[in-house]
Design brief:
The chain is globular. Helix 4 runs antiparallel to helix 7 and helix 5 crosses helix 7. It is 26% helix and 26% strand.
Length: 330
């Protein structure tokens, strides 16, 4: 049987602050506020304020990242499996993993490290991403200080265990730095059928946005989590992979009902936006904390591990939805 890859690259950026800095507790906003501007400085050849009507829109990286079109054969692909698969939007081709620290005060020469995940052909543009983060460093980040915002430099970029770019040499090492998530998922799913895992703890490293249950008592039941995980997997495969990924979505969701919450410290960290009424729906606020599930969990572990690597939920481009999974065997 012919298999098709779903490529995913993991890159670690090691930087150094050039100035004292005051940064927010949640570092994702640093990138949300500056990344797009820096990217335009790097890739925009026409220097237009509006991308609409630009003659280079089909070749430019900016619309590729921020207006990701569905795959060319999207209308020919079969529909999602029947079952409550929630995520059907086009996922961002990149995920920035901000520094995990919640500290806000930093000194000159402190490290400023962060991660980057790229899906599909976005991996071909890793050099443009490096140049964009360099431009961010020149523009400055965080609170405006006496001499402007705080600058940083990118010292090196690592993929796997190898340095692929060094600030002093300023050259990208040749090679294919992406791996096939699809092949790994299928192999792990087959092995997991006989796995004896009976308890799993899911730690939310960054807030989980837009997938929680509708009631305070049902912050993140396992069926809700599984629905969202399958949605993430299927939409990533549709957009950045090739071919249909056969998953027993209805069966997985049905069997997820046999898993219960054993212990939970999850809580909503609501962020009400101006002009919006307070709301307890799945799309309001953010969920933080950790939860331990108990039950026949073996077959679900590969899907949890998949989203451990790709993030989950909404606003993943800016680091939301990062999870860590710890399994317990009898």
């Amino acid at each position: 049987m012919e298999t098709f890859p779903m490529l995913c690259g993991y890159y670690r950026f090691h930087g150094t602050l050039l100035d004292d800095a005051v940064l927010p507790e949640s570092k994702g906003s640093i990138f949300r506020n500056t990344f797009g501007l820096a990217l335009r400085h790097v890739v925009c050849a026409m220097k237009q304020k509006d991308c609409a009507g630009c003659i280079l829109d089909r070749r430019c990286l900016y619309p590729l990242l921020f207006s990701s079109p569905p795959p060319a054969n999207h209308h020919l692909l079969p529909p999602f499996p029947k079952g409550k698969i929630r995520s059907t939007t086009i996922p961002s081709p990149f995920v920035i993993e901000p520094p995990e620290t919640t500290g806000t005060s930093f000194r000159r020469e402190d490290p400023f490290d962060f991660g980057l995940i790229l899906f599909g052909r976005s991996n071909e543009h890793i050099l443009h991403f490096i140049q964009t983060f360099e431009e961010m460093g020149r523009l400055g980040i965080g609170r405006r200080m006496e001499k402007g915002r705080s600058r940083f430099v990118v010292a090196s970029v690592v993929a796997g265990d190898e340095i692929i770019w060094h600030g002093r040499e300023r050259s990208l090492r040749e090679g294919d730095f992406a791996e096939d998530l699809r092949a790994g998922l299928l192999a792990d799913a087959e092995k997991a059928l006989s796995s004896p895992v009976t308890a799993v703890t899911v730690h939310l490293v960054s807030p989980l946005v837009g997938i929680a249950g509708s009631s305070r008592e049902d912050v993140l039941s396992f069926p809700v989590l599984v629905q969202s995980i399958l949605g993430r997997i299927l939409t990533l495969n549709r957009t950045y992979g090739k071919g249909q990924l056969s998953l027993d979505a209805p069966g997985l969701i049905s069997r997820a009902a046999g898993v219960r919450v054993m212990k939970s410290s999850l809580r909503r960290r609501g962020e009400e936006r101006p002009g919006r009424r307070p709301d307890s729906s799945a799309h309001s606020g953010r969920v933080v904390g950790e939860v331990t599930y108990e039950g026949p969990l073996g077959e679900f572990l590969p899907y949890l591990r998949f989203c451990e690597r790709t993030h989950l939920g909404r606003e993943t481009a800016w680091g939301a939805g990062k999870i860590r999974v710890h399994s317990v065997q009898p």
